[in-house]
Design brief:
alpha/beta, 15 strands, six-stranded mixed β-sheet, single chain
Length: 559
């Protein structure tokens, strides 16, 4: 229930803080006193649109704060708090909304900042505000269907239906995107596959081009290389006996012998002899490597053609694909492979999506069927209940009917609903097209009273729901609202004394002139029993109170 409301700098309200009890709470006041302003402040804290026009003259910001006491076991509210990192104070909620001069607003829940949307989610479970013009909802098919579902105890099924509908649409959207992607890839697949096959057939290897370049240089100059290496070998191995220049090895060998003999006389010559021996060993190694290198030099023109053809292929691929080296070509090949593999995976994913869509569609159809069955079973008793309530409000021949209309399955199931009404009991037609203002008020009150019983709404606000009625009808409407106040908190803003007299508490909204600023300001206060008698008497007689009006007021309050 709403236990406290605090308002600062909201339109004509400079500052007010007021506590509210349980039961039926009556709010009255002269026309233009500011009752609608009070409802606007309550709407603001429940997440309605904010703008700078809400601020009082000269104020920098306005603040509206509402305090609610809810059941500690309310799982929805607890989970909502947890999802938004708000402390769950065992059902005690403080909701605050501030608006600054620029029109920007901030929302808080238990002193933690939250998005305004959180307040709107809260409002659905905290308070139902029936405005003066809400009888227009009687032509709203969504409202009508919602009321029927409360009576049929099918709100859970309807929510499941809505969740399945959202899931189905999401899956269908994913399938459409996937089909578009598959179609695009299919158009490019032949080209992609041709590119991949060419790169795959090339059997590219990192560093291969550098190796080929080196081999090509050797093969292209093989004859010159082989001639040079052969000359080096000859210099190492020439034979003096054949009249040739002595080989390096034989010359060093002879020098080693001479120095070795001289070593007997000159010790340093022995050291030189050892150094020459070391040089001979090193030269032997060099000669061995030269001979090996010479044997491996290939004079094959065929191999040269193969190497140059391979280099031409790789350079051609580099140019075609705009790559700098084999590493980039290999990376491109792998990407093309992934793309082709993804295409196969996407087809598999599409098959999975189609199966999932079929499963969700089947579950949605089954849920819609169950929902239809519950609505169909409840439509008659629901219509009878509303008819009885309306007849108790002095429409003795009235009939109220509920017609279920088949539609394609959507978030609400496979039903649309039409409320039909006749005040004479014959030829019932669409309620929005036949009911007068007073009849509309009575029908809406009957619907709200029914919803209050089945929706477990903790607080309900009626803003002049009794418009268009008077006399004994007003008294009966007051009794119906009073009965609702026995099991929930009900606010009734009214101009009818018969309704005002039914309340457990009575608050008066007034507009006064502030002598300090000469500004009109709106105030609200709780009336004592004596003040309440005078207010009900004013409502009965107008500005001039008569003894008869006071006596009548006392009689109404004591009834």
């Amino acid at each position: 229930m709403l236990s406290r409301l605090q308002v600062k700098n909201y339109v004509l309200i400079d500052s007010l803080e007021i506590d509210f009890p349980e039961g039926l709470i009556i709010i009255t006041g002269q026309t233009g006193a500011g009752k609608s302003i009070l409802m606007g402040a309550l709407g603001l804290v429940m997440g309605s649109k904010a703008d700078a026009s809400m601020l009082s003259e000269g104020a920098e910001n306005c603040v509206v704060e509402a305090e609610f006491d809810m059941s500690p076991s309310d799982t929805f509210l607890k989970e909502l708090c947890e999802e938004n990192d708000v402390e769950w104070d065992e059902g005690h909620l403080i909701v605050r909304r501030t608006v600054n001069r620029s029109g920007r607003s901030r929302a808080f829940l238990n002193d933690s900042p939250v998005p305004v949307g959180v307040l709107q989610d809260l409002a659905v479970h905290l308070i139902d505000i029936h405005s003066q013009h809400q009888t227009l909802l009687l032509s709203d098919r969504q409202f009508q269907l919602g009321i029927l579902d409360y009576f049929a105890d099918s709100t859970d099924l309807r929510e499941k239906c809505a969740q399945l509908w959202r899931s189905l649409n999401s899956l269908k959207s994913s399938l459409a995107s996937l089909d578009e992607r598959i179609a695009r890839m299919a158009g490019e697949r032949d080209y992609t596959e041709a590119q991949f096959r060419q790169l795959e057939a090339a059997s590219l290897r990192e560093g291969e081009l550098a190796e080929l370049d080196e081999e090509q240089k050797q093969l292209a100059n093989a004859e010159e290389i082989k001639t040079g290496l052969s000359q080096v070998e000859e210099l190492f191995t020439a034979s003096a006996s054949l009249g040739e220049i002595p080989s390096i090895d034989s010359s060093l060998k002879e020098a080693d012998k001479v120095l070795s003999r001289l070593g007997r006389f000159i010790p340093a010559a022995t050291e030189l002899s050892e150094r020459i021996a070391s040089c001979r060993r090193e030269l032997d190694d060099i000669l061995s490597e030269v001979a090996d290198m010479n044997s491996r030099v290939d004079l094959s023109e065929t191999r040269l053609d193969e190497v140059e053809a391979r280099m031409s292929l790789i350079y051609g691929l580099l140019q075609k694909h705009g790559c700098a080296d084999e590493v980039e070509l290999i990376a491109l090949r792998d990407r093309l492979s992934d793309t082709l593999f993804d295409s196969t995976q996407l087809e598999e994913k599409r098959e999975d999506l189609v199966r999932e869509i079929e499963t969700v569609q089947k579950e949605l159809d089954q849920t819609a069927d169950l929902l239809h069955e519950k609505r169909e079973a409840a439509a008659g008793p629901f219509a009878d209940s509303i008819t009885e309530s309306i007849r108790n409000l002095e429409l003795p021949y009235a009939v109220f009917e509920v017609e279920l209309l088949p539609i394609s399955v959507n978030a609400n199931g496979r039903d649309s609903v039409q409320f039909r009404f006749s005040s004479t009991g014959r030829n019932a037609v669409d309620v929005a097209k036949c009911a007068s203002g007073g009849e509309m008020s009575r029908i809406m009150l009957a619907l709200k009273a029914m919803r209050a019983r089945y929706a477990n709404m903790p607080t309900m606000v009626f803003d002049e729901i009794d418009t268009g009625v008077s006399g004994s009808v007003a008294d009966k409407m007051g009794s119906m609202i009073c009965e609702m106040g026995a099991f929930m908190q009900v606010f009734a803003i009214t101009h009818l004394p018969q309704v005002a007299a039914k309340g457990h508490a009575h608050y008066l909204v007034a507009k006064d002139i502030d002598p300090a600023t000469s500004r009109a300001v709106t105030t609200i206060k709780k009336l004592s029993h004596e003040e309440r008698v005078l207010e009900v008497a004013r409502m009965l007689s107008g500005s001039v109170l008569t003894d008869a009006a006071v006596a009548n007021a006392k009689s109404l309050l004591e009834a």
